[in-house]
Amino acid sequence: MAGYIHIVGFKFREDISDADRQDVIDSFLALKHKCLRDGKEYILAIRHGFPQRTFPWHNDVDAVFVVEFASKEDCDYYHQKDEAHAAFLPKAKAANSPTAPGLVVAFAPVNN
User: Stress-response A/B barrel domain location, by residue (predicted)?
Assistant: First the structure.
């Protein structure tokens, strides 16, 4: 298991087309290979899926992404300095619902 986990839940705009939704998903998954640190890929894995069961507190997300890093420092680099991630953000924000917050959380697992 990775040393640091970053979770993103998307709530897509209601008027987004299926093709645009898939483009956002594909673009997010492509970050695994586009994000480079010192010329090397540093994202260990990106997995995604769609809620199969809803709970009252699930923020009504449509898609969930789990990004695995070796360290908090790698996750910080991703958020603060990675150009590929920065280039992806406008597309993600444009696709996200303006009325739903989605979900973003990061943590270091305490058990493996």
Answer: 4-108
